[in-house]
Amino acid sequence: MSSVNDALENARLTYAQHMRTCRQCHADGAACAVAKHLLRIYNNARREHLRPGGRHAGSD
Questions:
Q1: Which of 31, 38, 53, 57 has the most CB atoms around it within 10 Å of its CB?
Q2: How far apart are the first and last CA of the chain?
């Protein structure tokens, strides 16, 4: 289960770091294509984290 937690934390940190450092996101005031992709990865990891049993829910 910790790998799901690690993936969630890694995705969150990667997205947050991008939003802090991306010149395009700051200049436009809107998320760039990379930010949207990273947010999608974070949302998928969050959904996986919230799913009962995590990634291996139906494998037993």
A1: 38
A2: 15
The tokens of 5 are what?
Answer: 């937690």
The 10s digit of each residue's pLDDT in 16-28 is 999 999 999 988 8
- Spatial contact of 39 and 29, defined as CB atoms under 8 Å apart: no
Tell me the C-alpha distance between 19 and 17, whole Å: 5
pTM of the model: 0.77
Residue 4 contacts residue 10 (beta carbons within 8 Å): no
C-alpha 26/C-alpha 19 separation (Å) is 8
